Inverse folding.
């Protein structure tokens, strides 16, 4: 409809890029549906030890992805590091282990820290090297953008998909899922 198209076009303008935009009821749905598009049931998602998808979404990411496992990595002040991602991704390669497919990070983190653009580039480079997709849980994305004093595109960095938080910023029952890599949508 015209309203959905207008809203999606506003996101494209805000991020100054073409992307696929979908709307979901809340953050749990946005994260879960985004991750389910990036994984198959035999895959896994690397996330931080305090990530919202691990601690507060009641198994929804696993449910919507038909059983993709969350693999928890240590964080430094709530942030994933390339070393922690590499440690989990390379831990095992046998057929009995859920194959890592996605890294999910939160911008801003659950403890209020923010990924600087150079940190996002380093994580993205690690993901590319390991053949992993990069998802950003953006529940507090607007706060991170304001803190970084940069454009939304710079705050998102080189992620494949972003769950854009609207509810925590006054939106009513609406979150947006943005696929910057449109082939993954």
């Amino acid at each position: 409809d015209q309203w959905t198209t207008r809203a999606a076009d506003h996101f494209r303008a805000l991020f100054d890029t073409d992307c696929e935009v979908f709307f979901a009821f809340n953050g749990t749905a946005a994260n879960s549906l985004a991750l389910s598009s990036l994984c198959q049931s035999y895959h896994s998602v690397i996330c931080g030890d305090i990530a919202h998808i691990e601690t507060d979404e009641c198994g929804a990411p696993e449910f919507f992805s038909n059983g993709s496992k969350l693999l928890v990595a240590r964080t430094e002040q709530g942030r994933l590091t390339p070393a922690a991602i590499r440690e989990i991704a390379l831990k095992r390669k046998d057929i009995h282990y859920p194959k890592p497919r996605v890294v999910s990070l939160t911008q801003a983190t659950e403890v209020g820290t923010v990924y600087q653009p150079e940190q996002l580039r380093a994580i993205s480079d690690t993901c590319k090297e390991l053949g992993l997709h990069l998802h950003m849980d953006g529940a507090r994305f607007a706060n991170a953008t304001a803190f970084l004093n940069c454009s939304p595109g710079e705050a998102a960095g080189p992620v494949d998909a972003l769950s854009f938080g609207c509810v925590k910023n006054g939106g009513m029952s609406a979150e947006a899922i943005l696929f910057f890599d449109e082939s993954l949508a």
